[in-house]
Request: fold
Amino acid sequence: MMALAFELAATDGRARTGVLRTARGDIRTPAFMPVGTAATVKALTVDQVAQTGADILLGNTYHLMLRPGPERMQRLGGLHRFMRWDRPILTDSGGFQVMSLSGISKVSEEAVTFASHIDGSRHVLTPERSIEIQADRLGSDIIMQLDECVSWPAGRDRAQAAMQLSARWAARSKAAFGTRDSQALFGIQQGSTVEDLRRESAERLIEIGFDGYAIGGLAVGEGHEAMCEVLDYAPALLPADRPRYLMGVGKPVDLVEAVWRGVDMFDCVLPTRAGRHGQAWTWHGPINLKNARFAEDEAPLDPDVPCPTSQDYSRAYLHHLVRADEILGKILLTWHNIAFYQALTAAMRAAIAGGRFEAFRRDFRARHLGG
Reply:
């Protein structure tokens, strides 16, 4: 009996739409998870995030273990209560920081040893401790195994070593997690851009058995085309009856291409980061509101996105806020971008259910690739 029920409603080619049922609510797939790194989606309240249609948020184990700390989080009632979000939360394991903070981390068979980027203090993160923090201290609904993610390009030997270590850590993570009634555990496929390594990783994860499976080690510099080449085979190596989560991706066209290849779940900092820097994603591609051509543009940002920013504020006003570096500009553009990503996943769900996803994909690619 798995804690996370996954029900497929329709398929169109390899694209799938369905529902993940959790104790805290349903997650409609394809799903985009806004990133709440430090118990907040930057610039937004949880009510604003909920209004965009998000079913689930992502939290970051590495950052939360440093500040405010997992034991304090538990004393304060867990992550959901702390940030006032009553819907599902997925937490990453901290493994991505192995790569992104490689200058202040060290990997051994037993653990990752970190130097805090905040104060330099030393921390040890084992697969078991990662599970404890996520499941018992933060109270996440979906927990990720600790893994080692390598940067790109990676030689075969380096990619193989990291994949095999991740597989051993997957077994340790599963043993530490045990069986739980209301929480789920995902394994993470690694192997860089090497197909037989991805296959071996998937086989080892399936043998261990997880509630869901993630595709890790992409969006690390390989580029859109190389990512798509991996996704041509990687999702199909994972069980069809379990959710497939592509970690850290990406641009809107990346989501569409990944869904076409059989992926169900995504997260990325791009919509919030872009919003804080004056960029908006729309149905017709990205818009840089810093551009002087918007100074007297009275049109709404994108009237086809169901969000107050998108419909109620002129591009001229948003341009003014961005150029003046007003906090409201960052808030409004972040709100719009998260709403656009949710509108995009809703449109993909409808296209799959209607058997017209290929036409949707062709049209979207024509408007977004190269943008």
